[in-house]
Amino acid sequence: MDNSRVDITKPVFALYASLSGRNYPTLYGPDKRALKAESFAVNALYPDGINKSDNKDKVHHVVRFLCFLHQLQVQLSKVRDSHIETYRNSLLTEGTINQKRTINIYLTTIYKFIANYYETDPIRLSSLIGPTHAYQVNSGIFDENRARVSKKPKVKLYPLKYTIPSAKGLTSLRLDQIPTDTDYILLLDCIVNSGSDPFIIQRDKLAVEIARSSAFRRNSIISLKASQFRDITDAEDTGKMSITPAKQKYGYKFSFEINYSLALKINLFINDSLDPYLKENRLSLKWSGALFINQDGTDMKKQYLTIRISSYAKKLGWPKRKVLHVFRHLFAIEESESEYESQLKVNSDPNVAKSATRIHLKDRLGHISPDSQRTYLEFSQALAGADRVDKLKESEKMRITRQARIEQELLSLKRNKKNRDFDV
After folding, report:
1. What is the pLDDT of residue 142?
2. If you write DSSP's letter for every residue of 98-142 in order, what string do you get?
3. Which of 81, 188, 264, 360 is at a distance of 20 to 30 A from 8, taking alpha carbons?
4. CA neighbor of 25 nearest in space, from 48, 49, 4
5. By the 8 A CB rule, do 137 and 155 touch?
6. In this structure, are residues 41 and 116 in contact, taking their beta carbons and an 8 Å threshold?
7. Which residues pair with 13 in a beta bridge?
8. What is the pLDDT of residue 262?
């Protein structure tokens, strides 16, 4: 590696050597002698060697940190949390979120470097970060006298990293990633024609239908219980029923309304697919009662549900972000438009109608704060113009087919339910 850019006038610097086709740095101290333990710790960050671009990356951060310790006249083996905190604050020149994110990346490298350094000597007490397996901080924070400062028995990851506030409802989702009814139908057809096990097809198809026709997030979908949909009398009588998912974002306990069409689909999935599958594969004793399960009867995880739906989206050539959660945005947009039109009939003042729509949408989506629904409202307003018109035109041909298909399916579902009730 080219060492011409290395500044050997600094208290600590790195020189690079090539071995077996890989480049490895060696750190040198103020006396120009190699720092063997520190060099080992740095190279542990690079299991496959390093390249030229890394000269400005992790090694640079480590060298800068060691130079900082030299200025404080503190040995690496004597480093405590107070030193890490001082170093962290010295990197922050302006109190902006972006700089804090960057500094957190630097601190992650330093934490891993220190963890590797401690592992070079099993006798050395890692009082700063505790056991270093998987670079987790298990010991909490200690003071100069090795007394625990943090009252938490276990502090994961890196305790001195900055806490970055959330984006308050903002998202990186683009307008062109919000699906249409065309996308919805194509996705269902892709699942049906996937050639998977019939139970898997019905399960994945139902997950998409729930995401499209309700305000449930993925975490809520996989937390639904079959027992919640065995009796859908309320939906039959009033056209809707309230469901409270076991898991919700931030631990909320909102009840969400679902229409009779969706309640009937879920009810028939349980009776015609889920129950027979559990019985045929002798999984009833292992079953926890979850609506969505894996093939072995265990509860489905949110990550696996995402992988399943993403695999179909990939076949359709959709963007990576265009997966299950985006149907919640489509639901919110259509719900907002529908409610706004209804409010205008009651009150001709557009401002009053918009205010009432925001309140309605907040309740339907299960948001505590208006800031949480800001993204949904912004997307709804943006798509109300030309973009929304284009999307509606794109779906127009398939809307008629979809409506006819829904009516035919509902009629068939009602007949099957009546017949089954009669048999019982």
Report:
1. 46
2. HHHHHHHHHHHHHHHHHHHHHHT-TTS--TTT---GGG---S--B
3. 81
4. 49
5. yes
6. yes
7. 28
8. 93
Whether 326 contacts 171, CB under 8 Å: no
Q: Which amino acid is at 252?
A: Y
pLDDT value, residue 160: 73
**3-class state of residue 18 by DSSP:** strand
- Helix 181-192 vs helix 302-315: crossing angle, to nearest 10: 100
Among the listed residues 28, 20, 17, the one whose alpha carbon sits nearest the alpha carbon of residue 48: 20
Q: Tens digits of per-residue pLDDT, 355-380?
A: 787 777 777 777 766 556 666 666 66
Give CA angle at 53 (49, 58), nearest 5°: 70
Q: How far apart, in whole angstroms, are the C-alpha atoms of residue 164 and residue 170?
A: 14
Q: What is the per-residue pLDDT across 117-129, written as a single tens digit (0 to 9) for each?
A: 876 665 555 444 4
Q: Which two tokens stand for residue 107?
A: 């601190």
**Residue 226 above 60 pLDDT?**
yes
Distance CA(231)–CA(152), nearest Å, equals: 45
Letter string b/e over residues 250-283, b meaning 16 or more CB atoms within 10 A of that residue's CB: eeeebebbbebbbbbbbbbbbbebbeebbeeeeb
Nearest-angstrom CA–CA distance, 89 and 327: 42
Q: Which residues contact 310 (CB under 8 A, 6 or more apart)?
A: 320, 323
25: pLDDT strictly greater than 70: yes
Structural domain boundaries of the chain? 13-135, 175-423
What's the confidence (pLDDT) of residue 405?
64
The continuous run of DSSP H or E covering 95 comes out as none
Among residues 143, 159, 18, 174, which one has the least CA distance to residue 79? 143
| Third-level CATH fold of 175-423 | hpI Integrase; Chain A (1.10.443)
DSSP at 247: -
Which of 209, 268, 231, 226 shows the shortest CA–CA distance to 416?
268
Q: Which two tokens stand for residue 403?
A: 């409506």
